[in-house]
Amino acid sequence: MKKIYLNIICSMLVLFTACDNDFESEFDLAPDERASEAVKEFKDALISSEHGWLTHYYPNPTELGSFTFQFKFDETGIVNMNWDYYDSPDESEYSIKMFEKPVLIFDTYSKFSKMTDPEIGEPGKGFGGELEFSLDKKSADGDTLYLAERVSGDPMVLVKATAETSAQLREYAKQTKHIERSNEQVVVPFYFNLSVEGWDTKVNMVYSGDKLIAFLNYVDGGVAKHELMPINFTHEGFEFHHALVLNGIGVRSFKYDEVKNQFDVTDAGVTGAFKYEDVCPAHIDGMTDKFFGPSTFGGSAKILSPKLANLIDGIYPDAALSYLSTDTYVASWFSRTFNLNFENWKSLDIKVNYNKITEDVVEMEFLGYDTGWSAPFDDLAYIEGLMATEKGQAILDIVASPKGWTIVPIELKEYGSSYYLVSNEDPEMYMCFGLTYEDDE
Amino acid sequence: MSILFASCDKEEDLGKSLIDTSTPELNDVDEWIRENYTYPYNVEVKYKWDNSELDNTKILTPTTLERVIPFLDKMKGIWVDPYANNGGPDFMKAFIPKQIVLVGSHNYNDNGSIVLGQAEGGRKITIFDLNYINFDLSGMNDWERRKAMEPILRVFKTMHHEFGHILHQTIAYPVEYKKLTVGYTSNWMNFSDSDARKMGFITAYSLLNPDEDFVEMLSEFLTRSNEDWNELIDKIKIYDDSWNTDEAASEKARGQIREKEKMIADYMLQIWKIDIYKLQADIAEVLDGLGN
Lengths: 441, 292
What we know:
Chain A has three domains: 139 residues, Lipocalin, CATH 2.40.128.640; 105 residues, Lipocalin (Beta Barrel), CATH 2.40.128; 154 residues, Lipocalin, CATH 2.40.128. Chain A is built from nine helices and 24 strands. In chain A, a hairpin with a 2-residue loop joins β20 and β21. The longest helix of chain A is centred in the N-terminal third of the chain and has 18 residues. Chain B has two domains: 120 residues, 3-Layer(aba) Sandwich (Collagenase (Catalytic Domain)); 122 residues, 3-Layer(aba) Sandwich (Collagenase (Catalytic Domain)), CATH 3.40.390. In chain B, the strands form two sheets. In chain B, strands 1-2-6-5 form a four-stranded mixed sheet, covered by helices on one side. Chains A and B meet through α2 and β4 of A and loops of B.
């Protein structure tokens, strides 16, 4: 009985304690009011910037480089925008909603929606971006807003734009052309190498314009290393997604020097530059087998160096050169061909053996010519006549040079990789398999 | 007891309400939706991005703002108004889904197929592809116009399809309908529409089950003119091993579809007081205006 009384008294004490009206909240405002305040604070921050905000947005930071956007948010829920890709102002409705944090939502279709459009990038998958971003924090001076994708948590950093930002955005695309050297007639030497004071090695970079990504090759401690590095362009040059650190020295930012035609490192306290050289810092294992070994699929090279294009063009009097190609390796007893394809859909097929010289150097051993089904390339004598000319012999000397061709990958995938094939006889002769200029636009 | 009474003190100031009842800012599109869908039919149309309304495993984009009113206007002309005119305004007020979600992009499945629309229990319809539907057919030649009409007809067929589900789930169609044809299968995707018609089904998807058969019949019927419908049925031909027309088999397939048409017409008239031939004519008139 005493226990029962004791339990009743204890329960009453608990009840009275729980009903204490003098409880003081940690906060001045109720939860809903605090949520409303947070939403208002986020919106006020977004609309506070006179020239809007600049962001280098990586929709998929492991596989894609960044798209740079300038956003200008207004009070009525409209965000005006432009991007670095090409000059095309656009607008979207936006809203701020409270979930676990205040979240910025791009409500209607705009240029920014291309970051999630299933028709762009990998079919059905898109670039991998998002349309909803929570506010993580604001810099002390309010000039930087740190946002995070609501699902993946990947960052989007908004930096206050200036009066110059709109004009600067139009400079971004020019840096792509400096890297690709698409404005230059002769692109030699071939290897785009980064040298940094304090590093023991150079780092070679091959840029893939369709994914805004750099393929970095270097030797570190005697070991060949290869790394995919998403990049973003700036009005002055470009930046790596994250610093590349060797010997304890990290580099990330580069500025184009027009006089020297190179990109200088701009990271504080670091001296170095990206420039085109004729040395390959790191050869890559397995390239010959991957692209020219058994069970390979062949491919087409639609981008040729001007010197190689000039060498081949004119060999066939009836049509200009269109592209070069290799055929699928079906069986070892079936000879393979290296094909000169012309604008009138006819091709001159050179029978070759693809011999592996090193892991990334392949030789095209000349075996003769393959006759086609239609005139004039169904006539072996006609083909041999063309190739017996001085031009024909010069083509064979390059194509079937015993020094071979170095394979320089741009992007390595299970299927559909892209790579350069650079002549070791003359590095000004090269061809690119797997990419077209149209892909980069 | 004294504690109880103290907590019921009417003089206590509860402060301002925490619930925000203010009217949100409305743009022209919002105003148009209120006038044409919300006020007359109590329908919420969500065209702005809201991940919580969608399958967040899918990669999707919102609609382009300028496509919203043209689409909803045409949807009203091709689906809402004809039903309201033929079934009476109260009919549409009762059965129109109360939430319509618009999505700009295609909705891809893992196998590469595309989901055109989704309906959830008669309450919500989600429509995809809006950014790919163009209602401005001016300056197009016949071939271009036919190509441009394909996504338009596809999306409005989806609306009629999903609405058909709401109707038969409210009052079931006669059980005899399910016995008119045999051969329902979950492997419907292995058949073409042409194959299905030879079996007495209007489309391949009709093969899935009688409910889908019923709404496919209704939606195919309502999104083409009676002349086109008759031509579609009359063209069904089955060939024997010598590639001669098997008249008996062809007539049987055509007869099965005609029997379904009659049963649907009777159901719609008796249950919902809607003459589907009049409804078909009304919709065809609007579609004809679009195509020309």
